[in-house]
Amino acid sequence: MIEINNIRKSFEGKEVLKGITTTFEAGKTNLVIGSSGHGKSVLMKCMVGLIVPDDGHVVYDNRDFTNLPYSEMRDVRREIGMLFQGSALFDSMTIEQNVMFPLQMFTNMTKAEIQQRTDFCLDRVNLAGRNKLMPSECSGGMQKRVGIARAIAMNPRYLFCDEPNSGLDPKTSIVIDNLIRDLTQEYNITTVVITHDMNSVMEIGDHILFIHQGKKWWQGDRHSIIHANNPEIESFVYASAFMKDIRAQLQKKA
Length: 254
Description:
Layout: E1 2-11, E2 14-24, E3 29-33, H1 40-48, E4 55-60, E5 63-64, H2 70-77, E6 80-83, H3 95-106, H4 111-124, H5 140-152, E7 158-162, H6 170-187, E8 190-194, H7 198-204, E9 207-212, E10 215-220, H8 231-237, H9 241-253
Parallel strand pairs: 3-8, 3-9, 6-7, 7-8
Antiparallel strand pairs: 1-2, 1-4, 4-5, 9-10
Helix pairs in contact: 3-4, 3-5, 4-5, 5-6, 6-7
């Protein structure tokens, strides 16, 4: 579980986060949505320690991350897996070497143990036997799956995904969504996903935080968001043709 308590952050006098408070639970896919420039990425950076908030607390399972000494903060970071928007794979390494990298850097595992863990992670994302491929030989969806394999290599308690479906076709996006959801439930991970993809919201949104103008504007789940009586949410949710069709069907039933 990750608790966010009254997080505030300003840059050059402009307040970007305005006292956000929420809870992200383990075993659930927690989505952070909202229009570009309203504070989603800043919130995630505050949560993982890339940015220090001006006020408030980020609490990882009763550990106040914002006030921990450096050594203990580093320990928490080792429990965090990150899936970056562009996958962020090392182009000069095979996909196997990409997954091995955090294990070699941050563990005392033997070479055999690293190989075993790498093979397991690649198999878990349906890339068994593809170890020696280079990132340039992989499709966008495969690169995302390699990114997920690397993110779970350290057996994280917390998983952060920044726009995991960016640049992917709808079919591949569903594969990535399902994989993130299945891993979250299987290993009881606290997963936080930043996304603009309403398909993802409707497929895997166990808990949804909608940020507008740096504030927590609404929170709920994928079942309640389509009934939210709020113009800002409606404008965001029903922007796509897919969601407009859903609204039309709801209006017919009404």
